[in-house]
Design brief:
The protein is an all-alpha fold. The protein contains 11 helices and no strands.
Length: 199
């Protein structure tokens, strides 16, 4: 049985690996980050890395989970956009800023969804949970709850809405230096407003 100090060290070394990869993803794509670079930045040994994670993919999944936790409060603000307390422009501006700050993490999530069936299903499940959380406060999401034909169709619209957000996040991350980022932000605001206010 591990002591409290040993448990703390295990948690700390696991977090060191995650933060090392997160930092590396701010400047490089996932495919260009070997385990050796993660070890060098995190300061953990290869044995410690593999004690915590089976592969770089496992680290990527942990990063996704942490990113979802951090972004959830922003997505829940869509309820305030629906009531007019916040503007879609403000929401879109903040979302784009968050995506750009995350660097290659948005691209990683988008790429994993395209190549890993289990991860793709996880994203779908997470989007469905988001729809259910927003349903009580946002009519566009509320109409997506249920099993009748119209609810299924609205759920597909909501799912596509979230996929569009995922795609825009990857786009502004990949091309963050381009002058057209404000145009993406403006179009995102238009799309958010159109979906959220659709009665």
């Amino acid at each position: 049985m591990r002591s409290g100090r040993q448990r703390d060290q295990v948690v700390a070394s696991r977090q060191d690996v995650v933060e090392a990869m997160r930092g590396l993803l701010r400047s490089r794509p996932f495919d260009e980050i070997p385990v050796e670079d993660i070890l060098a930045v995190s300061g953990v040994s290869r044995a410690t890395f593999y004690r915590h994670f089976k592969s770089r993919r496992d680290v990527a999944l942990r990063i996704y989970e942490a990113t979802l936790e951090r972004t959830m409060p922003h997505f829940l603000l869509l309820a305030d956009v629906a009531t007019g307390r916040l503007s879609a422009q403000w929401w879109a501006h903040e979302a784009v800023g968050h995506y750009r700050e995350e660097g290659q993490i948005s691209v990683l999530i988008h790429g994993l969804a395209a190549t890993d069936q289990a991860f793709h299903q996880r994203l779908r499940d997470d989007r469905q949970q988001m729809i259910e959380r927003l349903a009580p406060a946002v009519p566009a999401f509320g109409r997506a709850v249920g099993e009748d034909a119209e609810a299924r169709r609205q759920r597909a619209r909501a799912d596509i809405f979230f996929m569009m957000l995922d795609r825009i996040s990857a786009e502004v991350t990949l091309f963050a230096e381009l002058a057209d980022v404000p145009d993406y932000e403006a179009v995102l605001a238009e799309q958010v407003a159109a979906f959220i206010t659709d009665n």
